Amino acid sequence: MLVLSRQRDETIMIGDDIEITIVDIRGDKVRLGITAPATIPVHRKEVYEAIQRENREAAKVKMEDLPNLPKAPGKPGSVPPGMRPGQGNRPIPPASPPTPPSGAGNENRPGPSGQTGVSPKNPPAGSEPSSGAPQQ
């Protein structure tokens, strides 16, 4: 175990992205501030041990025990979000993207030549895209 002495407002770095700062010291209590990426869980040890204990218990559940587990919270007979009632486990297909209101894009605005619908991705009919080099 590494033991370090720090005063209030001093920081300890763990790796490149975890900071532990001494926020306050009152009597025999030290308050720590921890900055870590959201992908790294940070818990008090007693909470971490409780999570581990619950995970071990959950891993012991057998498939034949599943029908005896309590139902998820919510209304009795409610359908989980994204599922169709009375259709088993068939998900609802995603909705089609909304149609933009007319005039939302630049496809109907006149371009530099006065033509509508002209852009580098949509050149006027009969023209070649320009590469910036003179054509021969």
Q: Give the overall silhouette.
A: extended
Number of helices, where a helix is a run of at least 4 consecutive DSSP H or I residues: 1
**Spatial strand arrangement across the major sheet:** 1-2-3
What are the segments in which pLDDT stays under 50 over at least 5 consecutive residues? 104-109
Task: Give helix and strand order, one letter per element, not per position.
Answer: EEEH
Cα end-to-end separation = 75 Å
Q: Could you tell me the mean pLDDT? A: 74
Q: Compute the CA-based radius of gyration.
A: 31 Å
**Count of strand segments:** 3
Structural class: alpha+beta
- Tell me about the largest β-sheet: 3 strands, antiparallel
Helix content: 10-25%
Question: Roughly what fraction of the amino acids lie in strands?
Answer: 5-15%
Structure overview:
This protein has a domain at 11-63. 11% of the residues lie in helices and 15% in strands. The chain has one helix and three strands. The chain has one helix at 45-59; strands spanning 11-14, 18-26, 29-35. A three-stranded antiparallel beta sheet has the order 1-2-3, with no helix packed on it. Strand 1 and strand 2 (18-26) form a beta hairpin. The model is unreliable at 104-109 (pLDDT under 50).
